[in-house]
């Protein structure tokens, strides 16, 4: 588990090093929005789908 987290962090740092600043802001925002939508959908699914 720790190895996966380290690989993800290093990958993100490398990604942010090579893309323009606005691209990193937009992609990070899209990632956070996707995580939020997935969390909302899971809550709805747990409540309505048996």
Biggest sheet: strands, sense, closure?
Answer: none
How many distinct helices? Answer: 2
SS elements, strand count: 0
Order of helices and strands: HH
Low-confidence sequence ranges: none
| Distance from first to last alpha carbon | 31 Å
Mean pLDDT: 88
Amount of helix: over 70%
- Please compute the radius of gyration using only Cα atoms: 15 Å
Write the layout of secondary structure elements.
Blueprint: H1 2-18, H2 21-48
Task: State the gist of this model.
The chain is mostly helical.
How would you portray this structure in words?
It is a single chain. The chain is mostly helical and 50 residues long. Helices cover 90% and strands 0% of the residues. The chain has 2 helices and no strands. The protein is flat.
Name its key features.
50 residues; mainly alpha; 90% helix
